[in-house]
Write a structure and sequence with these properties.
Layout lengths: L5 E5 L2 H14 L6 E6 L15 H8 L4 H8 L2 E3 L1 E5 L7 E5 L9 H13 L12 H8 L19 E3 L2 H14 L3 E4 L2 E6 L7 E6 L4 E3 L2 E4 L6 H6 L4 E3 L8 E8 L8 E6 L2 E7 L3 E8 L6 H9 L11 E4 L3 E3 L3 E2 L2 E3 L5 E2 L7 H14 L8 H27 L7 H8 L4 H13 L12 H10 L16 H20 L4 H8 L6
Parallel strand pairs: 1-2, 1-11, 2-7, 4-14, 11-20
Antiparallel strand pairs: 3-6, 4-5, 8-9, 9-10, 12-18, 13-16, 13-17, 14-15, 15-16, 18-21, 19-20
Helix pairs in contact: 1-6, 1-9, 4-14, 5-14, 9-10
Length: about 500
Amino acid sequence: MKPLQKIVILGGGTTGWMCAAMLANSVNTKRINIELVESEQIGTIGVGESTVPPFMDMLASLGIDEVEFIQATQATFKLGIQFKDWLKKDETFFHPFGRAEAGMDELSLYHLWLRAQLNGDTFSRFLDYSPNSVMAQQKRFAPYKAVPGTLLADSRYALHLDAGLVAKYLRNFAQQKGVKRTEGKVEKVNTSIDTAPRILSLQLESGQTINGDFFIDCSGFRALLIGDALQSSFTDWSTYLPCNRAVTVQSEALPELPPYTKATAQLAGWQWRIPLQHRTGNGYVYASKYISDEQATQTLLSNIQGKTLTEPRIIPFTTGMRKQVWKANCIGVGLAAGFIEPLESTAIHLAMRGIAEFLQQFPHSDCNPALINEYNARLQQDYEEIRDFIILHYAATERNDSDFWAYCKNVDWPASLVQTVEYFKARGDVPRKLAPLFESTSWRSLCEGMNIRPSAYSAFIENADYKASKQHMQNYKQQLVSLVKQIPTHKAFIEQNCASSSK
């Protein structure tokens, strides 16, 4: 079997250059050439500016210095997401990263807490035992690596970052690792003439031909390779998730930097706020069936703190994924593979998963169908897991104050989500899956926020000494609050440790 000799990546931006960086860090670029083709004439979407904790693992695996990266990308830290007005108006809940433990496994803690709640003993909220939630509430931050052996040692964090600066940083990293960059627009994709076409080369407008053994499509929603050339069909999930447009605008930096993304429900969708060191990212994700572009833009602009720095930009999209993310000798990565609206900041993660799984199933030039099938099955599981998690934010709402929310409230759930929620109601946990992004902690915070709770606590908890357990939980809560008060504010931590010099 002939090994791959050349991999061609079509498209730059955060996705393309992240793929290039991960590939160049994992393969011998003297044996396998990696060439990225992009055009300065074609803009990038550039709104994937909020990440999840596995992104930090990716940076570490590349050997990238975290402080240097934060400074270069004007990043801030992210402990989770605050959701406002989702269950009903004027109610807020928080989805934290990391676990809530109180010195025990989280499932036991949750059932001990449920026991107290069901007995009318409401001395705490469940997230009072989450280090990230307590830090976020006080707008304070210290990385778990800086406080080993304390109650913060199990916290996890991600980053808010400037997508344009991330692409620039990763481009430099990848090129230093041996990736070749070619400027140009694709005029034609040349494929083999047989019953199962393969991509042979890219013909650029300049007349240059880019040959390759394997192609990675990072061309965004256009999906020039996996969609247009190889005709991998698209599964539309708009029935479950009706938002299909976003209007975005940048505004000046906030006077204080909250260490979390804020997602505020609006009448026809929701609005995000992402605080960076030098500016703030804002957007309104909405369903065009229920609101016009002009109305959505006005809603966004009237709910922004501080002066705007850019003109509003409309981005249409369709939620769904390719039936075959890997077809023949090509994979789609990022928007070319699929898109799930940005409610839980999963766009960069799914792109990262796409290339990480490709490295796991790394083929010879013949691209064995067994590898392709396994890759597609795993990516489908990743996308559907995230899809279900996001659907629940909408479908469990108690709001009925607009046609949009009435639709979301009455939408039929996928069978997989029904199974997950029914299991949660029975056990306070979720079924085990292969490498999930959202583990039990995330589902517990979401279900609590959306008023979904088991009808009874675990019978096993009857074996615990309730009085002693309650005292332990109260002590932990007080210790956690006290510890968090001793760490710096999020803004102060950045200024002291990783402030960008180019703000």
